[in-house]
Amino acid sequence: MTVNVNYEVSSEGAVRHWEIPQARLENNAPVVTEAASVLSLLVGTQLTGTVLTVDAADDIAVIDFTCGMVYAHAVRNVLTYNAGAENTFGPLNIGDPVYYDRSATMPATVYLSTSPADRVAGANPLFGFVVPAYFGDTFPKGAAIASTQSDVAIMQVGAGH
């Protein structure tokens, strides 16, 4: 048996990094380390991942869509919207689902929340789940009031769900 020279092994399993035209992203001006969502025909079914690199000259972003990869992201603790405004909030805990929130009401550079629906009741795509960032990471994070928690470890669902 021969192993090809381009064979690659990763502890995360198959790594999925793809170049995506910026015009195909929910946020068409992506920034490295931010969450990303690829536009889709069906709201709530978008492929999501984390921006690794941006090539502004070619309008391309390389997105990590690896299922199970963990990255730190800012997460808004909004649970529901009412009449287009944030309505209810809750603390973040291990195992909580996190969504790519398509609402324009979120603070700048925050694209993730705990709300399964956006401000106009459209489905938000599942981005991943809250996990501890390190041994001794404390939970819950935040409270039942509006807040943005920075550096929350999210195990992304990526292209594997």
Largest β sheet strand count, sense and barrel closure: 5 strands, mixed, barrel
Mean pLDDT: 89
* SSE pattern, N- to C-terminal: EEEEEEEEEEE
Beta-strand residue fraction: 35-45%
Q: Span from first to last CA?
A: 32 Å
How many domains? The number is 2
Secondary structure: helix percent: under 10%
**What's the alpha carbon Rg, rounded to whole Å?**
16 Å
User: Uncertain spans, ≥5 residues at pLDDT below 50?
Assistant: 1-5
What is the tally of helical segments?
0
Count of distinct strands: 11
Based on helices, strands and strand pairing, what is the structural class? mainly beta
Task: Describe this structure in a few short sentences.
The chain has 161 residues and is mainly beta. 0% of the residues lie in helices and 36% in strands.
